[in-house]
Specification:
heterodimer; A: 8-stranded mixed beta sheet; 3-stranded antiparallel beta sheet; 13 strands; B: about 625 residues
């Protein structure tokens, strides 16, 4: 655990287009355990926002309860955050998003927060295709209450205390694909190279971008026999492909072998290039994606990378056809029908 | 009608009776019955219709009760003068419910069984089914027009003007004109039959008056939905639950009419049907946190589910508006009946030390105004505001003063800092009490690039919203919230006092839908020589006027519609009132409380007390 953040920064720290250094994207000091996977994910979010030249104050960070849900305080200190109640991040994010469609929304949750108490809200946020990045920091246990198994713990996974989990796990990525999520990715907190472009793509994706990140709990679930430990995840990771995120303004024309690359255009005109490793898998085909995840599971592999994407489907604002102007900026002149209309309404009740 | 001569006729009464319609749910009776009530309203006579309906869509008994009162009493009255019985299932019970000397209108297409015959009421048999079958071929029409036939017969027996009924039908079927003629025909069938077979009008009947003036006839839920549109709500998140569903539906209906962007045709509002009440409240909090006015509408079980979130909003100081349309008990069945039984759960919703301002509307006009005002109050106080209405007010049509709106009115968004203000100030402290009223300044996300951002949490933070588990910081915050509660007392709506100065030793206190019958009971008691001062509570926390009223009376009857005297408990708890001084007057059978019931409970209480001690002052102090 870090107690002090160095105030000194190299004077020649690189700046992004907005003139900000990485420092402008950092948050307060983490109070999580030293080596916690969650802190790596926070750093990845900082990196992704910095690289995308996002105004930090135009981001809203919303979380539930748990170790993972504490992290919004540890990144993007110039953004508003809301550490809400257990399992209910999606509903708070939904309301916030309805109020102002112009912010970037990060929903941060954990495996307990999403796969148990918050399962209902997770499901329905996906159904509505809420425009947000939904990150689950998945460590297979309840860290803040000292290591009980969570619903994502694998059958046979051994806890620190030595007990074996007998229950079937909830596979969040499979479930998200099944529910019709329009962006489903899976990654590992220790793989920044893979995670940064995934988060960037998630931000640019119009709709719910679900990213399930294996994020080992160093204190309660990093023991031999656990399937969420650093060692196990590293050994069993199977990347679907590499991903380059290409913002619209500066296209990167890389050379790839013919037939191996897939370009996916995002809503804002930016592009993602996927380089497949798995030959029979098409990230724009739901059945193919679902199949790939299941196949990997049978082989005890954790499939990582962008598993499924659909850019055709509108977000909740599109679905319910709200105004282009954010609702929270509207005033009396737009919102109040006025006295004359009220006279007509009264007349209708006589 | 020779055999009826022997039965006593009630005294001739003008514009003063109760008619009840016993129907089967889902047979189209509701619109026929509403036609009857609305026609009386159009004749300038005060009328109160009430639906008594099952938790069912088709097949179970349903009743519609219409009270007509020249004096303008709008509460429910016991004693049915005229019963229209067209439901075989409930026929026996319905016949028993008729006041002696009253009338039973029924379908005599089939002969009435002998055990349905009472010697002390009048029978008005009309072959409704036979007439409908003879005149209409479509089975659905036969069922629907049976209802219009009895309205036609009633119009003759009670003196409802035909032109009024005809106009109402024309209005109802504007755009579907071909439906007007068969409806008018059904009316006439009923009218002709009544003229040929009965003496008319009945001893109680109607006479046109000019007592309505510019009043409107509307239900409270419609008024709440409209109030939310006028009050500037942009996000409605809700989950279906009787009797609150029509609040959300009304909001959407009015918003889809008055809140469409003229250029793009897009909506200047969002309605989200949530997956449950927890999510609905979460959405409301998220939207308000982000600067939009947002509300939800629910009933008791929904409030239970929202408890955790309501507490979060209290501690995190996020505005929220919740319309609680109260109903009886949990589960299904009785919940389609009315009660005022969520007072305790709403006032003290959630874990930890938390309490919430409540509003108690008693008319549709107040539903409209208080819903609109609740957004100002929520923004000003940065806390959830709960509007306590109920099934009776929410789902029944009530005669009400018309809705009014001040054209100059600006929304009070409370203490919110904009970009310029943040720029000009030093360090922003989200939970600093700058003005001593306990209300801090807030910022919306996205306001300023480097100032004003903070993490919202339930507790565990200092004045600058920095995480801390320091006990002193927690206590300071809780004390500030207490200061805010004191501020709330000053800005919540004042109670209504029925007298300029308190003159009596005994008072009565009531709120919401208990008002109609309480006002009538006050008059009934006065006729018997029992004079009471009265106060109508409009909000919680109670302010000074309520405290003074209670202090200046030796005994106060607290009239409410629940078993445990929940408002009475709230008064005792919040104002340290001597419980002996507050006598409960209760009704919780799911039907709206009546004036007779209130008057007799008060009379009995006073009789018992005076039997024990002749001196009131010794008994109650």
């Amino acid at each position: 655990m870090t107690y002090l953040k160095p105030l000194f920064r190299h004077p020649k720290l690189p700046k992004n287009k907005l003139g900000y250094t990485l420092k402008e994207y950092e948050g307060s000091i983490s109070t999580l355990c030293a080596g916690c996977g969650h802190d790596s994910i926070s750093a990845t979010i900082v990196q992704a926002c910095y690289e995308l030249d996002i105004e930090p104050h135009l981001v809203a960070k919303i979380s539930g309860i748990g170790c993972s849900s504490k992290t919004p305080a540890y990144f993007l200190g110039n953004s508003h955050g809301f550490n809400s109640v257990h399992g209910r991040m999606p509903s708070v994010a939904t309301g916030a998003n309805m109020a102002n469609k112009n912010l970037v929304y990060f929903g941060v949750s954990g495996d307990g927060d999403t796969a148990s108490i918050g399962m209902g809200q997770f499901v329905h946020a996906i159904r509505r295709n809420l425009n947000m990045v939904y990150i689950v920091m998945n460590n297979g246990c309840y860290g803040l209450t000292k290591g009980q198994d969570s619903a994502t713990a694998d059958v046979g996974s051994k806890s620190k205390a030595g007990s074996i989990n007998p229950f079937q796990p909830v596979d969040l990525a499979s479930l998200a694909v099944e529910l019709g999520a329009t962006f489903v990715a899976q990654s590992f907190s220790g793989d920044k190279q893979q995670l940064v472009p995934l988060i960037k793509a998630g931000i640019q994706h119009k709709g719910l971008a679900f990213i399930n990140v294996m994020s080992p709990c160093v204190t309660f679930n990093n023991n031999p026999g656990s399937t969420k430990s650093y060692d196990y995840v590293r050994e069993h990771m199977q990347a679907t492909g590499t991903l380059d995120f290409v913002p619209e303004e500066k296209p990167i024309h890389a050379e790839y072998e013919e037939g191996t690359g897939t370009a996916v255009s995002l809503h804002d005109g930016s592009e993602m290039k996927l380089h497949k490793l798995a030959p029979d898998w098409d990230p724009e085909d739901r059945v193919s994606a679902a199949n790939a995840i299941q196949q990997a599971r049978l082989k005890d592999e954790i499939l990582t990378g962008l598993l499924y994407i659909n850019t055709e489907y509108g977000d909740l604002h599109d679905i319910i056809d709200t105004s282009d102007t954010p609702l929270n900026t509207m005033k009396e002149n737009t919102l109040c029908p006025g006295t004359e209309k009220l006279d007509t309404i009264n007349a209708g009740f006589r | 009608m020779k055999e009826q001569e022997a039965i006593a006729h009630p005294q001739a009464r003008v514009n003063d009776f109760v008619a009840r319609f016993a129907n089967v749910n889902g047979t189209g009776s509701a619109s026929a019955n509403f036609l009857f009530a609305k026609a009386i309203f159009r004749m300038g006579i005060p009328v109160t219709p009430k639906n008594i309906f099952p938790s069912n869509i088709q097949g179970l008994p349903t009743w519609y009760e219409v009270r007509v009162s020249e004096k303008g009493y709008l509460g429910r009255r016991e004693g049915i003068d005229l019963l229209v019985a067209v439901n075989a299932q409930s026929m026996k019970q319905d016949i028993e419910s008729v006041h002696p000397g009253g009338y039973l209108m029924y379908d005599n297409t089939k002969k009435l069984h002998t055990d349905m015959i009472r010697g002390d009421i009048h029978y008005l048999g009309i072959p409704m089914m036979e007439m409908a079958n003879e005149n209409y071929s479509n089975p659905r029409q036969r069922q629907l027009f049976k209802n219009i036939i009895y309205v036609g017969a009633l119009s003759v027996l009670l003196n409802i003007e035909f032109e009024v009924l005809e106009t109402l039908l024309k209005e109802q079927f504007a755009g579907k004109e071909k439906l007007i003629a068969p409806n008018v025909k059904a009316l006439q069938l009923g009218m002709n039959y009544a003229r040929e077979h009965f003496d008319y009008p009945l001893d109680f009947h109607l006479e046109r008056r000019n007592l309505i003036k510019d009043k409107i006839l509307v239900d409270g839920n419609t008024a709440c939905g409209l109030g939310a549109v006028y009050g500037g709500a942009t996000v409605m998140a809700w989950y279906p639950i009787t009797p609150s569903t029509s609040v959300a539906e009304a909001f959407e209906k009015f918003a889809s009419k008055y809140r469409i962007d003229p250029e793009t045709g897009k909506k200047n509002y969002a309605v989200v049907q949530a997956e449950d009440e927890l999510a609905a409240m979460g959405m409301v909090i998220g939207a308000n946190w982000n600067g939009a006015r947002s509300l939800t509408a629910t009933s008791g079980p929904g409030v239970s589910l929202m408890n955790e979130f309501i507490g979060l909003a209290y501690f995190a100081e996020v505005p929220a508006v919740l319309v609680d349309v109260q109903r009886a008990g949990p589960s299904t069945g009785m919940p389609t009946r009315t009660q005022q039984s969520d007072i305790t759960i709403a006032a003290y919703a959630s874990h930890g030390d938390s309490k919430h301002p409540l509003l108690f509307p008693s008319t549709p006009k107040e539903c409209f105004e208080m819903t609109a005002t609740s957004f100002d109050l929520a923004d000003r106080l940065q806390t959830p505001i709960i509007l306590m209405t109920d099934l009776d007010l929410g789902m029944n049509d009530h005669m009400s003063e018309p809705f009014t709106w001040d054209a100059e009115k600006k929304y009070d968004r409370g203490k919110v800092l904009n970009r310029e203000e943040l720029e000009a100030m030093g360090r922003f402290g989200r939970y600093l009490d700058n003005e001593g009223d306990g209300i801090p300044y807030r910022t919306y996300p996205g306001t300023h690039p480097s100032k004003g951002a903070f993490t919202t949490r339930g507790t565990s933070r200092d004045e600058y919203a920095v995480y801390t588990e320091n006990s002193e910081a927690y206590v300071r915050n809780m004390k500030r919230l207490q200061t805010k509660w004191e501020t709330a007392k000053k800005i919540m709506p004042e109670p209504h006092l029925y007298q300029e100065e308190n003159r009596q030793e005994i008072g009565m206190l009531f709120f919401g839908t208990s008002t109609y019958s309480s006002e009538e009971a006050k008059d009934l008691l006065a006729e018997k020589g029992i004079h009471l001062d009265a106060i109508r509570i409009k909000a919680f926390p109670f302010g000074e006027a309520t405290e003074t009223f209670i202090q200046s009376h030796k005994l106060v009857f607290v009239i409410e519609q629940n078993r445990d005297g929940q408002l009475r408990s709230l008064i005792i708890n919040e104002m340290q009132t001597n419980p002996a001084k507050l006598a409960p007057v209760l009704n919780y059978d799911g039907m709206p409380i009546t004036a007779d019931d209130i008057a007799s409970q008060i009379t009995n209480y006073l009789k018992q007390k005076t039997a024990v001690a002749h001196d009131l002052s010794e008994t109650f102090i």
